[in-house]
From TrEMBL:
Residues 5-308 form the Inosine/uridine-preferring nucleoside hydrolase domain. One of its GO terms (biological process) is purine nucleoside catabolic process. It holds the Pfam family IU_nuc_hydro. This is Pyrimidine-specific ribonucleoside hydrolase. GO terms for cellular component: cytosol. It comes from the Bacteria. Keywords: Glycosidase, Hydrolase. Gene3D superfamilies: Ribonucleoside hydrolase-like.
Amino acid sequence: MGTRLIIDTDPGVDDAFAIALAALSEDVDLLGVTTVFGNVPLAATTRNAQRVLALCGRSDVPVAAGAERPLVHPHPHRAHYAHGVDGLSGRSQVLPEPERELERADAVELLVSLLNAADEPVTIAPIGPLTNIAALLAAHPGVREKIDRVVIMGGALGHGNTTAAAEFNIWSDPEAARRVLTGGEVSCVLVPMDLTYRCAVDAEWLAKLNGSGPIGTALYALTPDYREHYNRALGWDGIVMHDAVAVAEAIKPGILRTERFPIDVDCTHGPSRGATLVDRRRAELRDDTEATDEVADVRVGTDTDLDGLRGFVLDRLATVTGR
């Protein structure tokens, strides 16, 4: 078996693609899925995750619900404008009912259990707000040695999408994001929206997914509201599959080209709240001018073979039946 993986998620259309990508990949040992508030409230994100796993025939994968709000401040709003009222363009009913009961343990408890039981290091892919992961690292320092990498979809090097400065996942809980990204306790890879936007897929790609079989058809059926939103955001007919890009890197390390940068997160309450502050200056200049406390270096996804990445995701999702 290849990559041992746990996904932490707030489905979300792109999250659904990302879960399916891992669930259908033969070279992935998908140990579990944990859920968090985000695109829609926790009850909906949890149900959506269960239903995507049922679509993929993965009743073996446990699901546990986690944080229903940020660590410190209330969550200002959901992403209904992109993902629809239920997180899946209002079409979650096209997915089968869950085949497995929700775990009695909460998300952090399941994470600890899975990590302690693992005989090799595990990759965690948080593709929603980082609340569960911050709680895990703060309360259970002993599991850090069991974590290979934390591959995070979030942040932006340039402008944001939820505000002018901030990307949605980081903006949803900046304090949690800062705890994870700047702590230096685990190896982090940040996959920012600058790169995920470049990996956007067009109508032809979506048509191939739709025609690939029952799973691809069901995933395609979840996209109308999401596609309408991205038609406006992109200026052409397509979608951005943000979270699937991060999970692709979690599955196949090196599919994204990364560079190491110091990162901080703006936790103030001004217009830049939730911004990821990525210091791309030359190291020599940083050494001469740095006036603040040290922050951890994080690997940041900066480039990829765009067509290769799109093909990798489509090939994995275009599976006739689940495992």
